[in-house]
Amino acid sequence: MSGKNIAIVAYLTALGWLIAIISFNNNSVKESLAAFHIRQSLGLMLTGLVLASVPHFMGLGFLANIAALLVFVLWIIGFISAVQGQEKEVPLVGKYYQDWFKGIV
Questions:
Q1: What whole-number distance in Å separates Cα of residue 68 and Cα of residue 39?
Q2: Closest CA to 20 of 6, 34, 37, 31
Q3: Rounded to whole angstroms, how far apart are CA atoms 31 and 49?
């Protein structure tokens, strides 16, 4: 799989992310585009999980919905960046994802 394809698949659910990381590790050429978007996608998934869960458990379901919408918008930005073959960080948190998850790929 090419680096661009791996980058795109990384955004397609948690299973897609898992397929992307396995494909990346099995690929003889480690493309930075794929690694970049694997980290971005993982960060978005974890952020979405936390931002949707915490308010829900606190009885503030409406905040969970707002957080889910925010993460969805960031996901769209990341996905479009992957489709275009660009290493463009998602706003607000993308730079942190690159730093926090640099040991993954």
A1: 19
A2: 6
A3: 28
Helices (H), the chain: 3-9, 13-26, 32-57, 61-83, 94-100
pLDDT at 64: 80
47-74 b/e (C-beta count within 10 Å ≥ 16 → b) = bbeebbeebbeeeeeeebeebeeebeeb
Q: The dihedral of CA 69, 75, 79, 85: what is its sign?
A: positive
Asked if the model's pLDDT at residue 55 lies above 80, the reply is no
**In whole angstroms, what is the distance from residue 8 CA to residue 85 CA?**
9
The mean pLDDT of 58-85, rounded to a whole number, is: 90
Considering the chain, what is the average pLDDT of its residues?
A: 90
| CA-to-CA separations, 18 to 9, 11, 60, 89, 93, in angstroms, rounded | 9, 10, 31, 20, 21
- Alpha-carbon distance 68 to 51, whole Å? 7
